[in-house]
Amino acid sequence: MSQPFDIDELAQKLIAGNRVALAKAITLVESTREEQQLQSAELIEACAPHAIESKRIGITGVPGVGKSTFIDAFGSKLTESGSKVAVLAVDPSSGVSHGSILGDKTRMEKLSADPNAFIRPTPSSGSLGGVARKTRETITLCEAAGFDTILIETVGVGQSETAVHSMVDMFVLLVLATAGDELQGIKRGIMEMADLVIINKDDGENASYTKLSKASYQQALHLFPAKESGWTVPVLSCSSLSGSGIDDILKSTESYFNHVRVGGFLEMQRANQNGYWLKHAINEELNHRFYSDPSTKVRMEKLTDDVKSGKVSPFVAARELLKNWSYKS
Amino acid sequence: MSQPFDIDELAQKLIAGNRVALAKAITLVESTREEQQLQSAELIEACAPHAIESKRIGITGVPGVGKSTFIDAFGSKLTESGSKVAVLAVDPSSGVSHGSILGDKTRMEKLSADPNAFIRPTPSSGSLGGVARKTRETITLCEAAGFDTILIETVGVGQSETAVHSMVDMFVLLVLATAGDELQGIKRGIMEMADLVIINKDDGENASYTKLSKASYQQALHLFPAKESGWTVPVLSCSSLSGSGIDDILKSTESYFNHVRVGGFLEMQRANQNGYWLKHAINEELNHRFYSDPSTKVRMEKLTDDVKSGKVSPFVAARELLKNWSYKS
Question: Do B174 and B29 lie in a common domain?
Answer without folding.
Answer: no
